[in-house]
Write a structure and sequence with these properties.
Elements (H helix, E strand, L loop, with lengths): L15 E9 L4 E6 L2 E6 L6 E9 L3 E9 L27 H20 L6 E4 L9 E9 L4 E7 L6 E3 L8 H4 L2 H9 L7 E9 L2 E8 L5 H14 L2 E5 L6 E4 L4 E4 L2 E4 L10 H15 L6 E5 L7 H4 L5 E6 L2 H13 L5 E5 L18 E4 L7 H10 L3 E6 L2 H13 L2 E9 L9 E8 L6
Parallel strand pairs: 3-5, 6-21, 11-12, 16-17, 16-19, 17-18, 19-20
Antiparallel strand pairs: 1-2, 1-4, 2-3, 4-5, 7-8, 7-10, 8-9, 10-11, 12-13, 14-15, 20-22, 21-22
Helix pairs in contact: 1-9, 3-4, 8-9
Length: 443
């Protein structure tokens, strides 16, 4: 068959190179340079020389696949998980925790410096245990018809296929011990072919699970799940669809923060790493330096993870959140913890906020904890409110750097920055920053 030239045809050749890795990016990929272009290579560490195969070439960078290590970095460690490298949950178990934290902190510092022109020296990293830290995880369920068996696990690192997981060392031990008995329980259900996923959550009063089932469960399966719950001392919730949730057995979950008890719905967002969350909330309180006569605003407040602890120190705290269920939970927890000086508003912070009722009030200090998209819609209003201090908690350093520019342009000073190692062994980079009003900023 004749082949004709097409200018749009992409010609790829597998090129093999020997490179020296210079650094580690926040996602756990080694970074080398060849002919002035950065090459990202998963599985390599700084100081290692490696034989690699180029898998993707762009104008500004390339990607490579490790073929052979020619030497080993002293900070390379043996991964604790038997699924590492196949499961997509973790990317950095081959590097010790000090290297992971240093690489992420360096990336945060460089990004803030590049976007803002200045960055204070980073405070020590807030961290907890490198393993056994996750108190929440969702496992996919898929029935393999040919093999006549259930698969339970996480997605493959290069596809949507499931990796069957029997051990997960980043899970809290109370959850990891449930994996094999849970798998045997689910495999024996009559509804085994029609299960969607199962979520495990560790509350302070014990573990719970949420089972997504695609058909109505028969009584025999409900009995089997109840028996499992009693045997393993776990609460069980059934989700017949994405909206409803039925408690089959067990207590309502809660967690404790700053001496307060916060009840939550099994599907509510709570911070996955409890140890880091405790330190993060304490740091935010210290940075804000809240006085008894001050009013504090908490934007993107969720169910009150920061709002309620702040209320112990302030005259009044206002929380604003876009999810109605979380606002209801915050109000419930304020009442249960005898905090009458807290009020919550259910408002969309990505819409026009100028006419929202909270926006006309005055505040002395502000905390915000937005999602990955950041807080572009509220930054100009924060400047109008002219708080003495602003604490920004971020799960995306790019949007933190972008939003910081608004405060810096208004005369605020970036006083302190800390990295939060909320998700060890992963590419997630969490941080928090303190902005202080400079003399001459009008109040």
């Amino acid at each position: 068959m004749a082949q004709f030239y097409s200018p749009n045809r992409r010609v790829t050749t597998k090129q093999t190179l020997t490179v020296t890795v210079n650094s580690l990016d926040p996602f756990g990929q080694g970074v080398a340079r060849h002919n002035g272009k950065a090459i990202f290579i998963p599985g390599t560490l700084p100081g290692e020389q490696a034989e690699i195969e180029l898998t993707e070439q762009k104008r500004q960078y390339s990607r490579g696949k490790l073929k052979r290590l020619l030497n080993r970095c002293s900070e390379r460690v043996a991964p604790a998980c038997p699924h590492f490298g196949i499961c997509g949950g973790c990317q950095q178990q081959h590097a010790n925790s000090q290297l992971q934290q240093m690489s992420k902190a360096d990336s945060l510092r460089r990004l803030i410096m590049r976007e803002t022109g200045s960055c204070p020296e980073l405070d020590p990293v807030i961290f907890g245990p490198e393993y056994g830290y996750r108190r929440r995880a969702r496992f996919g369920l898929f029935y393999q018809t040919k093999q006549q068996r259930l698969q339970m696990g996480f997605h493959h690192n290069e596809s949507h296929d499931l990796v069957s997981v029997k051990h997960c060392p980043v899970l809290r031990p109370e959850l990891e011990r449930l994996l094999q008995p849970l798998y045997h329980c689910l495999s024996a259900l009559q509804a085994v072919r029609r299960l969607g996923h199962v979520e495990l959550v560790l509350a302070d009063n014990g573990p719970l699970m949420v089972l997504r089932h695609l058909d109505t469960l028969k009584e025999v399966d409900r009995v089997a799940l109840t028996d499992f719950a009693l045997r393993e001392d776990i609460a069980v919730y059934l989700a017949g669809d994405s909206e409803s949730l039925e408690k089959l057995i067990g207590e309502e979950p809660y967690y404790q923060i700053e001496g307060l008890r916060l009840a939550f719905h099994p599907r509510d967002f709570i911070q996955v790493n409890d140890r880091v969350n405790q330190q993060m909330v304490a740091q935010a309180i210290a940075w804000l330096d809240v006085r008894p006569d001050e009013r504090v605003l908490d934007l993107f407040c969720g169910m009150g993870n920061f709002t309620l602890p702040l209320a112990k120190f302030a005259r009044e705290v206002v929380g604003v959140e876009g999810v109605a269920a979380l606002v209801a939970n915050g109000q419930y927890n304020a009442q249960n913890n005898a905090l009458p000086n807290v009020s919550f508003f259910h408002e969309n912070l990505e819409s026009d906020i100028s006419c929202q009722p909270w926006a006309t009030q005055g505040f002395d200090k502000i905390l915000l904890d937005p999602a990955r998209a950041g807080a572009a819609g509220v930054m100009s209003h924060i400047v109008k409110l002219a708080p003495k201090r602003v604490v920004y908690v971020s799960c995306n350093p790019t949007t933190l750097a972008r939003d910081s520019q608004v405060l810096l342009a208004a005369g605020y000073r970036l006083a302190q920055v800390r990295m939060l190692d909320m998700f060890p062994h992963t590419g997630h980079l969490e941080s928090m920053a303190l902005f202080m009003q400079e003399p001459g900023v009008a109040k």
